[in-house]
Amino acid sequence: MMKRYSILSGAFQRKGYVILLYLLAMLPVAYAQEKDTTSLDYYDMSLEELMNIKISVATKVEQNVDDAPGNTIVITRQQIMDMNARTLKDVLNVFVPGMDALPASMKYGDRVETVYSRGINSDFSQQILYLYNGKNKFNETTFGQPLGFIEFTLEAIEKIEISTSPVPLQGGSAVTIINLVTRDQSVDGTEVFLNTGFKDGLLNKKATVLYGKEINDWHIGGSLQFYDDKGVKRNSLAGTGPSGSLIRDPKYIRDGTKSAYNLTLNVQSPDKKVEFGTWYKFANQDAYMAGILPWTSGNTQNYTGEQIQSYLSWKATKNLDVTAGYMYDYMTYPGFPFYNTQNNFDTYLEANYTNQLGKKKEHAVLLGGKIEREGQIGNTTYYWDDRINDFRDTTAYPLAPNQSRNVASVYLDDNWAVTSRFSILAGLRFDHYDNFANTKISAANPRVGVSYKLMDHLTIKGLFAAAHRPPTLYELTGQTLLPLYGNPNLKLEHIDNFEVNMIYKKNNLKVKISAFNEIYRDQIIYLPIDKNLSDRDTTQAFNAGKTNVLGLDCSVNYYLNKDSYIFFNAAKLHTETAQKTSVQFLPSVYINGGVNFKVKSVDINLTSYYRGKRPMPSGYTINTREASGSIFVSNLSLSYNLNSNIRFYMLTQNLFDRKNVFPLSIDGYYIPLRGRVVNVGITARL
């Protein structure tokens, strides 16, 4: 088993270098080209259009970002390119108030890049729902965030639509929704992106090709990316060394990605009635960045996995859309003396009917339904056998038994334009789960919103939205990821959200303020089975009562012109658990901002984000001392446009070389963020 993975990883690595050399060979050709192949040219959009981009994440139909219910945010490709962001984490940390995007799970240190939103620190961040072109959802045994997902191909993204308010229409776990809309559907031509990072020598490298072409009125587009990062050596107060000793030895602690590959593909029929989209990823990442394992990263200490997402959409009539989708992932989890592999799937069929009803077409109605089957179809545990000095497989210790669940959903939404200034939104979604562990669960989630244009430049919105999160396979039946055990008696986690939004928009200025109260009932978390034990010992999933989140966030955007702008956003949260404590490990203060100035062919971009101090459990003396402080990161990017097709840039991450650290939920273990890293890159259009 170990040899097979070693050969597989090496083969992928060699292919990655071949791809990189091929792209370098293509660059001289790019200099001779003059065609601008931008799919949706933000540089040609008016300032008014830039401030009124349409999104679909909140209602499943396109509408102005400020007309959508709740707190919605759109991040454009122009903003991503201006800051020359390397990963999705870089973008979310800067543009979304109240969001904390980290390179590993704060609860257990797993290499599952994690996003926390609005003050909720769940075990695997299941309250974040990711969508790919508004379609597929990403899941694993934990139904959290997929391996290496934050390294999604940013160059292939048209825009990122985010709703930090719950959207019942999107189903279970739709508390915060992040929808990645790709460029594959419309790009024409070829674009090449090369990036290399330096820290104590060559650190990382990334090569991307984006392509698109019309063939007999059919459009074919997609992207291919190779990514490699040798990682930075780490140290921690309780860093482990050979044979499990507590010797500080940083060579055993790394945070790299040995290799990762992304492939996207999109095919559209001539009449745009049929669309096929797919995304494939392979990733091989260093394991515990905190150095919990007693030796350097090896094949059985890596997080290795692959995932494929596919959908086929058919516009059956003017008002009826039908989509079928499929997801499959394979992952290996590190450990000793056991490590585990798992296979998961998700397949669904969804139909949406939209129409304008009423004498004056004042009712925008959406009626839809979805049937889905998802679960775990394969799980193998490997254990160390001293007799053969290698791992062998066993069926005695699975992560969780192989089980699947059926989900049936129906939903209705009506956006009623009462007058030209006043509108009412009302909707309801009903979900029924033939769930894991032979349980059955149902949930009905309503949504009611109002919007009133108080004056030409000022809009007030109010929203009540309920959401839910069903217990996952591992939370119900888990038995091997010590110290985590499942609990077959778990109930649904319920979320009620009350929110008021104010949006002021005039000329080049846009100001948005949101006040909200999210109430979590029966929140699912892992708690010590013996209340006198620490998190090191055996824990089990429980419904832990109510968590209350009160929050206020604001954002300000000011455009000097289309290419030069200033932005600022901040959030202040107050959280209280059933035990009358704050939500631990997450800060209550978030401040982000940046400026972008373009003068002729030169673009200067500076972005920063700040996270306040993190509350720690009373017994976590080491984390309190070493890793509860604030985090501040600044990134500076300088770009030069040689012509309309060639662009050079230099990106300095963590400009001031701050030593930022975030804690894990085990005292004595914490993860330092990287210091200053310098990246250089080139973008070429063919």
Summarize the structure.
With 686 residues, the chain is mainly beta. The protein has 6 helices and 37 strands. Strand 16 (320-333) and strand 17 (338-357) form a beta hairpin.
Q: What this model shows, in words?
A:
The chain has 686 residues and is mostly beta strands. The strands form six sheets. The protein has a 22-stranded antiparallel barrel. Strands 3-8-9-6-7 form a five-stranded mixed sheet. A hairpin with a 4-residue loop joins strand 20 and strand 21.
Secondary-structure blueprint:
Blueprint: H1 2-30, H2 47-50, E1 54-55, E2 63-64, E3 72-76, H3 77-83, H4 88-95, E4 99-102, E5 114-117, E6 128-132, E7 136-137, E8 157-163, E9 176-182, E10 189-198, E11 202-215, E12 218-229, E13 257-268, E14 274-285, E15 303-315, E16 320-333, E17 338-357, E18 363-385, E19 390-394, E20 404-417, E21 422-434, E22 440-455, E23 458-469, H5 473-477, E24 484-485, E25 493-506, E26 509-521, E27 524-528, E28 539-543, E29 547-559, E30 565-576, E31 589-599, E32 602-611, H6 621-626, E33 631-641, E34 646-653, E35 661-663, E36 670-672, E37 677-685
Parallel strand pairs: 6-9, 24-28
Antiparallel strand pairs: 1-2, 3-8, 4-5, 6-7, 8-9, 10-11, 10-37, 11-12, 12-13, 13-14, 14-15, 15-16, 16-17, 17-18, 18-19, 18-20, 20-21, 21-22, 22-23, 23-25, 25-26, 26-29, 27-28, 29-30, 30-31, 31-32, 32-33, 33-34, 34-37, 35-36
